[in-house]
Design goal:
272 residues; alpha+beta; L-fuculose-1-phosphate Aldolase; nine-stranded mixed beta sheet; 11 helices; binds Dihydroxyacetone; binds zinc ion; Rhamnulose-1-P_Aldolase; Rhamnulose-1-phosphate aldolase
């Protein structure tokens, strides 16, 4: 089967295209990765190159040894992926130590996986461990409203979670663990990968101050949906602040009632 005809590649491309249309991916901003299933690799095995040159990832992810990842290319534009996936995305194979990768498909005119590959792989590593393999998608975007809030809200999980939860009743149901926040850091390297993946033990959403967000999830719909839900709530927050701030809101007791009714395990540290 052709790689671009598989459902997982089609699903990946659909996310990148929808996300560009959302306005979350100026120029080469943002990146997406998917931990490919063994059954999906079996469908395309004949189309994959035999790995020759392995390149250091920059971080060590032993529990991802031997896995394959579909990932956006460094410097590639989300809006171009749908036009020519072969040039803009790649499948990377992780070596038996979990320290190096080789491109086995895609980036046909050269290139490397996203500059945030270390953060993607460390997040995959943590999520694979704690969800027993259920989570497969890591997604990074630059949505304007969440970034705007990182200039005015205190940069901590409690402040962000509480504001985002309050702006839309569905939020505490969709992400009852809340959102983590990383202070401004230099992107693209090991330090921000370590800081982000630590928070991914607790959250599915990690905000990078003055930069963007990382979301993690089981599949493309859930992960894209998570980004969409958080950013929508951030947009409401920006509007409310622009109108002079809240005059009434959802109370801690309201959240407790909601959690009980919807049987969600709400992170009560963020309530009063
Ligand atoms: O891919 O978003 O954080 C470009 C970026 C880096
Ligand atoms: Zn970014």
């Amino acid at each position: 089967m052709k790689v671009t005809e598989t459902n997982f590649v089609k699903g990946f491309i659909r996310v990148t295209n929808d996300a560009f249309q959302k306005g979350w991916h100026e120029r080469n901003g943002g990146n997406l990765s998917y931990r490919v299933k063994d059954s999906e690799i079996a469908e395309i095995k004949a189309a994959l190159k035999t790995p020759t040159q392995y390149i250091p990832i920059g971080v060590s992810v032993p529990n991802l040894a031997g896995e394959y990842f579909l990932v956006t290319g460094s410097g590639k534009y989300m809006r171009n992926i749908i036009l020519c996936p072969e040039d803009n995305i790649a499948i990377a194979h992780i070596d038996e130590k979990g320290e190096n990768y080789a491109i086995v498909w895609g980036l046909e005119h050269g290139g490397t996986p996203t500059s945030e590959f270390p953060t993607h792989l460390m997040n995959h590593s943590i999520k694979k461990e704690i969800t027993k393999g259920k989570y497969r998608v890591i997604y990074h975007a630059h949505p304007a409203n969440i970034i705007a809030l990182t200039f005015v809200l205190p940069l901590n999980a409690k402040a962000f979670t509480r504001e985002i939860w309050e702006m839309a009743t569905e939020c505490p149901v969709v992400f009852p663990q809340g959102v983590g926040v990383v202070d401004w850091m230099v992107p693209g390297g090991k330090d921000i990968a370590v800081a982000t993946s630590k928070l991914m033990r607790q959250y599915d959403i990690v905000i990078w101050a003055h930069h963007g967000i990382f979301c993690a999830g089981e599949d493309f719909d859930l992960t894209f949906g998570l980004m969409d839900t958080v950013e929508k709530s951030a947009e409401i927050c920006v509007k409310v602040l622009s109108m002079g701030g809240k005059k009434q809101t959802i109370s801690s007791q309201n959240f407790r009632d909601l959690a009980k009714e919807f049987k969600v395990n709400l992170q009560t540290d963020f309530l009063d």
